[in-house]
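Collaborator request, handled under Task 6.
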Amino acid sequence: MSTDAGRGQLADTYVAALQHDLVDLPPETTLVGVVRSPTPWFHATVDENLPALGPPANLLESTKAAEEDLKVQGLCAEGAHNAAWDRVDFGERYREHLETDEEARTALESLATRLESGESLALVCFENTETKRCHRTILRERLEQERA
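Structure tokens returned to the collaborator:
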């Protein structure tokens, strides 16, 4: 979590950590989902969701296909997930989405403004980044760059 005088704190976590009380966030933190197609139980865990900041559908589909192919080749679930990211150039494509998609840019600017005004935010997705790569880490880096 980063702290700047007069500015909100920024964190990221995954939904299961919130559901099982595995993460320590200040009580005033707004839980912002960044999931393209959230489940009802995801909605029940977060305060809001910004689907525009989730990876675009075509990127999710190509990553899932690569992941399944890698599992067939014998990689474990986590290994296949992480290798699929490299295979489809996930990071580069997601960063491009944040730059070129009007809804994503608007949502990103809104989060940056909220942080500047003092609101503390935690970006929430499904992946435990101790074992799997997740777009929310890229999103957090982007927000931190805008704050610098």
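The cover message to the collaborator said: "The chain is about 55% helix and 15% strand. Confidence is low (pLDDT under 50) at residues 1-5. Please let us know whether this matches your experimental observations."
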